[in-house]
UniProtKB/TrEMBL annotation:
Keywords: Membrane, Transmembrane, Transmembrane helix. It comes from Tenacibaculum todarodis. This is Cytochrome C oxidase subunit IV. It comes from the Bacteria. The chain crosses the membrane at residues 12-38.
Length: 55
């Protein structure tokens, strides 16, 4: 099965760019998320963390 898929993938022109694009999107998402976590205001974090308990 893997040989069948590998042979088809090798026949597609320009397919090698898709893993690179996926890695860039994945890395960018987590860098932005990491930046947001460290720059979020403490008041906002506390307010959001109390939302499930407000009922």
């Amino acid at each position: 099965m893997l040989k069948f898929v590998k042979k088809h993938m090798e026949s597609i022109i320009g397919i090698e760019i898709y893993p690179i694009i996926s890695l860039i999107i994945f890395f960018t998402f987590f860098v932005v998320l990491f930046w947001w976590v460290f720059t979020a205001k403490k008041e906002y974090i506390n307010k959001v963390s109390q939302l499930p308990l407000n009922d």
